[in-house]
């Protein structure tokens, strides 16, 4: 099979963006955060390797117990662990949640930082989380958050062959137009949940099947 040109790959990326925009015209994060960038940051931090629904079940209790950043900064880690124990890696996440609150208070004057570099200084916040906070919390899409859904889907589409999320993101940012990044952050995740499902991809009803080299295509008779 001949190697696909960059121009052809960009054209496929354009089609992907257009069709996903049509499929998910009002795509947005499923995390509940009440419009507060700090609560969004904590919710995304907690969502690593667990579901948004699981996070949405524990955060109301967390904010009822610790309504302000200062309250959470002075929390007992064992109490936070007890609140979030139903989600994965709750020991580490509880510690990072408190440390994150402390750093926001001491280093950033009680305000969540507004840059990718500063966001990634916060405990438990990597590039994926920073991308989501910038996009959702501050309405500034500076990248595409590559979670397990996005990594899997974009590799199936052969838009990237990189072995890490960061390198995959670099590939995607070269292919997709910047004005599509914000929506793609949500659309790709939704697509991974309802169509391009890891163990049972729905290729027969997929809006991208004809531009996906990995899609199952029934033999013609």
What share of residues are in beta strands? under 5%
Given the C-alpha coordinates, what overall shape results? Answer: elongated
Give the count of helical stretches: 11
Examine the coordinates and then state which fold CATH places here, giving the name of the CATH topology of the largest domain. Endonuclease III, domain 1
Category by helix and strand content: mainly alpha
* Topology order in helix (H) and strand (E) letters: HHHHHHHHHHH
Give the fraction of residues assigned to helices: 55-70%
Give a short account of the largest sheet: none
CATH class of the largest domain: Mainly Alpha
Rounded to an integer in angstroms, the radius of gyration calculated over CA atoms is 19 Å
The fourth-level CATH homologous superfamily of the largest domain is: Hypothetical protein, domain 2
Q: How many domains make up the coordinates?
A: 2
CATH 2nd-level architecture of the largest domain: Orthogonal Bundle
Quaternary form: single chain
Walk me through the structure:
This protein has helices at 6-23, 37-46, 52-65, 69-73, 77-84, 90-108, 116-119, 127-137, 148-156, 165-175, 178-194. By secondary structure, the chain is mostly helical. The protein has two domains: 6-28 and 144-211, Orthogonal Bundle (Endonuclease Iii, domain 2); 37-137, Endonuclease III, domain 1. The longest helix is centred in the middle third of the chain and has 19 residues, at 90-108. The chain is elongated and about 60 Å long. It starts with 5 loop residues before the first helix and ends in a 27-residue tail after the last helix.
